[in-house]
From TrEMBL:
The keyword Ligase does not apply. The keyword Hydrolase applies. CDD domains: M23_peptidase (cd12797). SUPFAM superfamilies: Duplicated hybrid motif. Gene3D superfamilies: Glucose Permease (Domain IIA). Keywords: Hydrolase. It holds the Pfam family Peptidase_M23. This is M23 family metallopeptidase. It is an enzyme of class 3 (hydrolase). Its EC number is 3.4.24.-. It comes from Rhodanobacter humi.
Length: 396
């Protein structure tokens, strides 16, 4: 046999051995239940998806809603335009909520971008947050995942990625008593506000948190919707100014600040450092481990001290105008820790209040009466979180 024939025979034998070995290895993977890795050319880098805080459910007069944030970071070297975000039941992939178009634009915000920006494109290396609320109807999924569909650059078409599994928290703790007396009070909050409490991250101690995720600002109005009895630039002329704020449960006083000065005018209120935004405040440690915060209190009005045991309905202080505030009101929220800035906001429900109506347009606060509920709906609500810009009345 010629030398060339020998080389060709050996080469064929080596190729046959490689093919047989490859097939044998593939069979071993199949028997072991191990999938072969995807072809390199089909792999695609896109978004890193994260849920940093568990989705939390809370009940309002409109039913149960889940509040959550989906964090996405563009890990590529090109911009990616988010086209659609879906929340799916992790058990079977059933779509629970989907967001696209203008609705998605309202919900997606780039960290560090101007508030006025309304674009779903995430530049290379940038981090965005999708602020999500979805209703719980006929199913209460134990866990969820997310599907993000995006447009790749250069006409490469669309891609999608699924991930960010999270367990849904349905417990809202023991129902709380009223933080104020009487009314009417506007329960000011709205998930869509781009600079509202629900979307404000505080990044301290090496962690980003949203203390005010479920915060409510209570503003006193009269039967005609007016907020003041005289000059709106004078804090003392606001209807709620000086109102007693009440312990919402039997609890221990965890923190107090009472010495911050109050601006003599609403328009002259200066900008405050982050640690001073709450103004004078009281924090209660509830017996179930949560913390209740009362912020912007009147100077010198705090009637409790740290470590003191208080009882539901006990007066803690008076509504005022200290800290970062655009007018006298009571900021109330519940969180998982004793810090006004370094804790995660948690849902809460109030055991009872009368729902009088709501404002569809926040621009009408103080200018017109709210839209009333019909007689069948204007009844006492129980174990609910006040809905967006609802007008409520507590027991006197």
């Amino acid at each position: 046999m010629a030398a060339g024939e020998v080389i060709m025979t050996v080469s064929r034998r080596e190729r046959r051995m490689k093919i047989v070995a490859g097939a044998f290895f593939a069979c071993l993977l199949a028997v072991a239940g191990i999938a072969r890795p995807a072809m390199a050319e089909s792999a695609r880098q896109s978004f890193d998806l994260r849920v940093l805080d568990a989705p939390h459910a809370v009940r309002t007069d409109a039913g149960m809603q889940v509040f959550q944030e989906l964090h996405l970071t563009n890990s590529t070297d090109a911009p990616l335009a988010v086209a659609r975000v879906e929340v799916v039941d992790a058990a079977d992939g059933q779509v629970l909520a989907a967001f696209a178009g203008e609705d998605l634009q309202r919900r997606l915000a780039l960290i560090g971008a101007p508030l006025a920006a309304r674009d779903t494109t995430v530049p290379p290396g940038r981090h965005g947050v999708v602020y999500i609320e979805w209703p719980v109807h006929d199913r209460c999924p134990a866990a969820i995942e997310h599907v993000v569909t995006y447009a790749a650059p250069g006409g490469a078409g669309q891609g999608s990625v699924r991930g960010a599994r999270a367990t849904v928290a349905y417990a809202t703790g023991t129902p709380l008593g009223p933080p104020l007396r009487g009314g009417p009070w506007i329960a000011v909050h709205a998930a869509a506000w781009r600079n509202g409490h629900r979307r404000v991250f505080n990044t301290v101690d090496g962690m980003a948190r949203i203390p005010g995720r479920f915060a409510v600002d209570f503003i006193r109005v009269d039967a005609t919707g007016r907020m003041t009895r005289g000059n709106p630039d004078v804090p003392g002329d606001w209807l709620g100014y000086g109102a007693a704020v009440l312990a919402v449960a039997d609890a221990s006083v965890a923190a107090v600040r009472d010495a911050m000065a109050e601006s003599v005018s609403v328009s002259g209120n200066p900008k405050h450092a982050l640690a001073e935004d709450a103004g004078n405040y009281v924090a209660l440690r509830l017996d179930d481990g949560r913390y209740a915060f009362y912020e912007h209190l009147r100077p010198g009005s705090v009637a409790v001290r740290v470590g003191q045991r208080v009882h539901r309905g006990e007066v803690l202080g008076q509504l005022g105008f200290t800290g970062a505030s655009v007018g006298p009101h009571l900021h109330f929220h519940v969180s998982d820790g004793p810090s006004t800035i370094a804790s995660e906001g948690r849902p809460f429900v109030l055991d009872a209040f009368d729902l009088l109506g709501a404002y569809a347009d926040p621009g009408m606060f103080g200018k017109a009466v709210w839209t009333p509920r019909n007689e069948a709906e204007a009844r006492r609500r129980q174990a609910e979180w006040p809905a967006e810009n609802a007008v409520v009345r507590f027991a006197d």
